[in-house]
Amino acid sequence: MMEKLSLVKEWDKTFPRSEKVDHSKVTFHNRYGITLAADMYVPKDAEGTLAAIAVCGPFGAVKEQAAGLYAQTMAERGFLTIAFDPSFTGESGGMPRYVASPDINTEDFQAAVDFLSIQGNVDPEKIGIIGICGWGGMALNAAAIDTRIKATAALTMYDMSRVNAKGYFDSEDSEEARYEKRKALNAQRTADYKNGKYALAGGVVDTLPEDAPFFVKDYFDYYKTDRGYHARSLNSNGGWNVTSSLSFLNMPILQYSQEIRNAVLLIHGEKAHSCYFSKDAFEKLNGDNKELMIIPGAVHTDLYDQTDIIPFDKMTQFFKEYLV
User: By CB neighbour count within 10 A (0-12 exposed, 13-18 middle, 19+ buried), where does 220 fall?
Assistant: First the structure.
C-alpha cells in the first residue's frame, strides 16, 4: 500500500536544528492510498508514552517551513510531534502534483492521527493537531469528524472554501461571480486535458510591484526571501494547479464545526488581513473549551516563524491541559 518516496536525508529546513530533540523522517498513508512524508521530532531522553501533535501548513508551504518550526518547538516542550507534507505536495506522494482537496487534505490530518495512534511511544488518547493558514481550516474540519483529536490549534487560519467561493472579505459572494469562476476553471480543465499537463497558477510574485497590496508584500517577505524560501514550496515557486481550487467552490469545509466537542484554540494576528476567518469561525464554536487569542499588532505571516510573537507558552499550556 505504501508508495516508495525519495526523502531528503540532510537538514534542509528554513530554521536551525534543535539539540533538544531527536529528528527522523517517517512515512504513513491515508485511506486513499497516498503515502505522506513527515518529519518526526521526539524530546531527547523521553521515557514512556507521550502526548503527540501533528502539524501541517501553511497552504502552499512544505514541512521544512513553518510546520516544522512548530513541530520542533513543541517537541522541545515535551510532545512527540510530526510535521507532514499534504498529499500531492512536497515529499509526499500522490498524482497529479500540486492539487488541494477539501476532502483529501482533511483526511491527511486523520491519517496522521492513524499513524500516531499506533506508535509505541504515543498515548493514543492524547493526540492533538496544529493547522497553520489554510491548514488551520482543514484542522478544524478534521476535528469536526475525528473524535480521536482531543485538542486542535489553528493559527492565522484561512477558510479555503470561503475565500474561493466568496472572495476576500466575501467581496465576490454572488451566483454570477461564482459562475464566472466555474466557467474559467472548467475551460482550464479542457485546456489541461488537451495539453496533457496541468497549468500552474504561479506562486507568490517574483518581483514585488510597488503598488502591491499589503498581504502580497507580507507573503513575499516570507516565501520569496531567505527568511522562508524553500525549493519544494509551491508558494515560493510555481504555485498550485490552476484548477486546484475548483472543488472548494462546492464543498464548505466548516459545515459542522459547531459540533466539535473537544478543545479548540484559535490564534490570529490583530493586523492580519485574514483575521476575520478566525473571528467568524470562533463564533460558530460551542463549549467552554474553545478560545480565540488575538495577538496585538501581528500580521498574517508573523505567526509563521516569528518566535517572539508566536505564543508557544500559551499553546503548551493548552495542549498540556487537554492532552496531558
Answer: buried
Element (H, E) at 21: strand 21-29
Residue 23: helix, strand or coil by DSSP?
strand
Buried/exposed code over 296-313 (b: 16+ C-beta within 10 A; e: otherwise): eebbbbbbbbeeebbbee
Q: In DSSP terms, which residues pair with 265 in a beta bridge?
A: 153, 291
In sequence order, what DSSP letters do the residues of 264-280 get, joined into one string?
A: EEEEEETT-TTHHHHHH
Q: How far is CA 209 from the centre of its chain?
A: 27
Query: What's the average pLDDT block by block, 10 residues per block, for the chain (324 residues)?
Result: 88 98 98 98 96 98 98 98 98 97 98 98 98 98 98 98 97 97 98 98 93 94 97 98 94 97 98 98 98 98 98 98 92
Q: Which three cell numbers stand for residue 93?
A: 506522494
Nearest of 197, 235, 201 to residue 96 by alpha carbon: 197
pTM: 0.97
